[in-house]
Amino acid sequence: MSDKGVDKIISYINAKADKETSDKLLKAQAETDKIKKAAQEKAEREAERILSNGKRVAFLEEQRIIAETKIDVRRKRMDAQEEAIAESFEEAKKILEELAEEGKLDNFVYKDIIFNLVASASEIVAGNKLELVFNQRDSKIFNKQMLEELTTFVKSRTGRDVSLTLTDKTMQFLGGVVVRDLEKHVEVDNTLETKLSRLKENLRVDVAKILFGDRI
Predict the structure, then answer these.
(1) What CA–CA distances, in Å, run from 89 to 16, 39, 82, 186, 187?
(2) Which of 18, 107, 123, 192 is most buried, judged by most C-beta within 10 A?
(3) Is the pLDDT of residue 107 over 90?
(4) What's the rounded mean pLDDT across residues 130-154?
(5) How many degrees, rounded to 5, is the angle at CA 75 between CA 211 and CA 26?
């Protein structure tokens, strides 16, 4: 049920976001190293200052400062993680919006993406009478010939005698499609926004691994 076109776009997006993300992570690491060094120096100064009160007190104070520093370092890393993820998805949204508007971007063809999204949803549902919901832009360009071509494509993918119709009403979303099974009364949301949302958690984990390694 893989949406090959969408997967390729996501790979393209990730490649474009890699350099910016790496730069932010390097900057965050430099900042955290600086914080740790300053904290260590502060801890040593504090330890010397209160040494007269006993080694035990000095040790506890040093541990308190180090513990606070670790919390600060982790918070900065998490902030860098969230910022990297947010910017990656903003970049993704811009690329997908351009692709949907222009119909083609580099080696990606929006029509192929739509066909794969419809076929993927059709493989999930059980019924053969399916209704397609597009946004206003795509609804206007999706003519009878394209619908017949899509129907043949979906039949080939599903192995079922599927019939496709377009709803008169449109929905507001960036692109993609909502497929409704009129027999089973279920629908599959394969809009571009939803596809990105589904991938967001995986990207979050990948970025977290870069930031924290095995410590996450």
Answers:
(1) 11, 35, 11, 29, 25
(2) 192
(3) no
(4) 92
(5) 40
Question: 108-195 sits in which CATH class?
Answer: alpha beta
pLDDT bin (cut points 50, 70, 90) of residue 108 is confident
Span 31-46, pLDDT tens digits = 767 777 777 777 777 7
Q: C-alpha dihedral over 209, 94, 106, 25, to 10 degrees?
A: -30
Q: Is the pLDDT of residue 195 over 60?
A: yes
Structure tokens at 183: 């027999």
Q: Give the CB-side neighbour count of residue 19, counting CA atoms within 13 A.
A: 2
Report the distance separating Cα 131 and Cα 109, nearest Å: 23
Would you say residue 94 has pLDDT above 70?
yes
Cβ-based neighbours of 179, under 8 Å, separated by 6 or more: 118, 121, 122, 125, 130, 131, 132, 133, 187, 188, 190
- Confidence check: pLDDT of 214 > 70: no
Q: Give the pLDDT confidence score for residue 20 in this predicted structure.
A: 61
